[in-house]
Amino acid sequence: MVRGNLRGRSARGGVAAICGVAFLLFGYDQGVLGAVIGLDSFRKEFNDPNRYLEGVIAGIYDIGCFLGAMLAFVTADRLGRKGSVVWGTWIMVVGTILQTSATENIQMILSRTITGIGNGMNTVNVPIWQSESFKSHNRGAMLIIQSALIALGHPLSTFMGLASRQAEPSSFGWRWPIAFQGVFMLLILLGLPFLPESPRWLVHKGRIDEATDVFAILSGNTIDDPQTLLERDEIVASVEEEKKLGEATWGEVFTEGPNRNISRVLLGAGPYMMNQWSGINSLAYFLPITFERNLNMTTELSLIIAGVLGVQYFFVSWLPYFFIEKVGRRKMLMGSAAACSFCMIMIAIMRKVNTVPSQWVFVAFTFIFFDVFSLGILPVSWMYASEIMPLRTRNKGVALGVGSHWLSNFVVVFVTPDAIDNLKHWLYVIWAVLNASFVPITWLWYPETARRSLEDMDEIFRHERFGLTKTRSPGNRTKEGGDGVIRRDAEEAIIFANEKGSPHS
Is 159 exposed, middle or buried (0-12, 13-18, 19+ CB in 10 A)? Predict the structure, then answer.
């Protein structure tokens, strides 16, 4: 049931706003431990944890996120996209209360696991809910906004840690930044009752009248408007075609079949893993202590620089909004990965040289790394899986992708405290090599999704077998041209207009 009278732009804006708060919370959560782990009050409370225990406290959150993503496998299809976000957020509330009140290492570890479970559920369902609530020409732009809000969460947590440092040696100094994330959770829980469920999920569940109402709410039209009925009928036809094949099973996700499910799962997981294996969270989770331990900065100066970097990261991450649909996912992903590789090479060199001037060059290339990461890898990693998965297996497929993201995140975060001390500059050489590898991988195997509907991607996967992709340019859907007919691009080998059958979404 939807409360209130939000319609059209207001309804779409409401969905975007709540999704945005969820992504802001995600970014805040990633940065908050790094902002407080170096505070004297935190280290005293938890008996001055060594590098191994730092890695466990930080990384266990990602294990929780992985478990939450897997839990979304078995709950989201039953609870719905919106209902799953409600449950995920309440789980995060419980975890945050336990984190804020922690006095022992074991309580902090368990409470961060619980918080991670809730966030893992949300990182599966929020992108799906948003992508299924917006038309194809809106999806990329909206997800850029969400990516920018992830970036905003980092400096917000850092400056919160800097401000609360004034309360030292009181434990309020580290407890308040952790407790503050409850504000975001409250906003999500208060806003969700006023927003509609995913119309695609409603159709999938046979609730056609409700889906029609939602299409009308999101478009601002009446339920008998031709555009409303066209959108509904297109999705109904897709779902009916799917149901002829029966209900999706676990085995179906891991088999190829006519929909190329396993290929899409692997391709969808790739950008999530690129996100982590770029080395972003080797820096982001521990940015203040990276500056402290690599460059011998004071805690206060490290927090200030980390906060300023985060603000710049936030503003730069808005730029793809203006061109991601025109340029496409592939070019942005490859360009971003190549630039990230170069930055990591320079960071490694400066860490090896280790003079006062080289230390500030280290800082400068850290700033640039975050910027170029936000121009490609960040937005594409969070949108690509939900753009290529068929409706029958979308929840399971995206959950697998998010699961791979969180497992990779755990490994990166767990090893970083020790790696900073032991691998030294070689840590950044590893990230440089991995980033460079993403360029040929993307060029060879990843079809372009920009300006294509979720149903259009089904047609691409039906025509292209697993191997080299020929779909390298954006499609032709626009605000004015969303009639479901796709024309052939000059360089693409797939002709949609005359061969298009019933899509499998």
Answer: buried
